[in-house]
Amino acid sequence: MKWSQFFDTSIGKKILVGATGFFLCSFVLVHLAGNVQLLYNDGGKAFNSYAAFMGHNSLIQFIAWGLKIVILLHAIIALQLTFSNRKARPVKYAINPGNQTSSWFSRQMAVMGSILLIFIIIHLADFWWKFHFGNVPTINYDATGEPVKDLYSTVQYAFKEGWLVALYVIGMIGLSFHLVHGFKSAFQTFGLNHVKYNGLINFIGVWLFGILIPIGFAAIPVVIFFK
Amino acid sequence: MGLTLKVWRQKNTKAQGGFETYQVKDISSEMSFLEMFDVLNERLINEGKEPIAFDHDCREGICGMCSMHINGRAHGPWAGTTTCQLHMRAFKDGDTITVEPWRAEAFPVLKDLTVDRGAFDRIIESGGFISVNTGNAVDANAIPIPKDKADAAFAAAACIGCGACVAACKNSSAMLFVSAKVSQLAQLPQGEPERATRALNMVAQMDKEGFGSCTNTGACEAECPKEISLTNIARLNREFIRAGFTYEK
Fold first, then answer.
1. How much is the pTM?
2. Which neighbouring-strand residues pair with B7?
3. Distance from the CA of B196 to the CA of which of A66, A131, B86, B172 falls in 20 to 30 A?
């Protein structure tokens, strides 16, 4: 079987979705670690110099563009699979078993993923586009140093809008529900289903990726809103 | 007991189907679900009406022919049970029971509750076999096989190919079936010669038949009358990845 045929099979496509999913899981960890600096009470010094570093380091920029391609790949292949899965049952059942045979989270992957995709587009337009191509005021923390773009104040200002905060919280609920099933599901797709590891994989998927990380992300706009 | 049955009636594959409602009376709680259908069909025949077509053969839970989707559940509400082994004590007097055929693009309805599961046969033909020498049967214990491997292969071999996994899956995926067949053979030395081609060909045939892909919801495992485990799907994925990455053709 050629590579082109291999990645055209249902399992081959799922491997691509799983692999890109793992990369995106590692990204949310790094992204949250950076964003926590938005909550520092230092007038944005730590966050702005971090943002300047991320924006100028060529290796980081290479990964950042790769990340956007990975998000698109993950979404396109997953949607392709979703549509062919729908086609596999042209006549629907009159009565469905609901939660009797499978978890609600596991059946909503496409819905939650779509919410996330819309959220990511809005999020990128809001901050990434503004930071790179828009007008962001600069600030100089060090009399002898280079002035840096004040993304910190832009974010603080943006999250005074209640509807934007609500949108971010909805986006993170989408992330939570997506990863509760998605993290462990990717392991199954890669063939890793073993009594000695399943407990740990499930624990990390639910508690770290499903609960802690989304709460961490959602807390940032909420805290800024009420500050 | 008396029951209201809403049964899917469809003349043939191309015809538009629909539900028809039947009242059945004096059903014993000790009857099997299929015997209850026998009672109803006897009556329909006596009334000069077309009896309801449904698949059945051994009626002891091992042939894999019966295939009813009962109140939203493949093989009805009992776990690890085929429709023929489902007894009417699972229901209460006055219940309304909705009965549908397996619904999947790859399982076209032939008539009423009967579907064509030929897609499964074609998947087996594509790789669900081993090569053996002709001549005298070899001694049963000539090849040493670890007990845990033999048990796992045997548990996978319990699959009766009824199609409940496809019926229960929201994607109509046949992964549990294919994984059971691959797991049965891939774990044993006898299955080694075709190990790579089996995984590749059976998955390719599965896709060709129009089954959906697996999203790991676990509905198949929950509904399987032979309680085939999801670990088999992980094994199929491993076998497929191993073959895809290393097999030279």
1. 0.94
2. B20, B99
3. B172
